[in-house]
Amino acid sequence: MNHTRWKLNRERAVSDGSTEPEEAASDRAEIRLAMAFAKAVYDRRQRLGLSQSEVAQRAGLTQAKVSRIEGADAVPTLPLLRRLAQALDATLNIALDSDREEVTFIDRRAA
Questions:
Q1: Boundaries of each HTH cro/C1-type domain copy (predicted)?
Q2: Topology, domain 21-107
């Protein structure tokens, strides 16, 4: 089934009053957060004009680890979040709500 048909089926089920299992909703929220973080790291790195290797070197990581983070394939620990924020010369802000996740890096010079 292609994505368009899946989306239509899901929307139809929701409009019929069906609800998705709690576990599926939780998984979806975790994926959204990982993707928001991955996008924030990628966007900040691009703004600074850095390669993945340069960020990795600054953070004491491997380029492969930075790639996995930007691909939303790795779940960073709190110490890793701090190292990435320092490597990207930024303050990391993460806002979590029941229906949205927002991850931003704010330039330390602007803060």
A1: 41-95
A2: 434 Repressor (Amino-terminal Domain) (1.10.260)
Global confidence as pTM: 0.76
Question: How do the domains of the chain map onto residue ranges?
Answer: 21-107
The two tokens of residue 23 are 């576990």
pLDDT, tens only, 5-56: 555 666 666 677 667 677 877 788 888 888 999 999 999 999 999 999 999 9
| DSSP secondary structure letters along 31-93 | HHHHHHHHHHHHHHHHHHT--HHHHHHHHT--HHHHHHHHTT-----HHHHHHHHHHTTEEEE
- The secondary element (H helix, E strand) that includes residue 26 is helix 22-48
pLDDT confidence of residue 43: 96
pLDDT tens per residue, range 82-104: 999 999 999 999 998 877 788 99
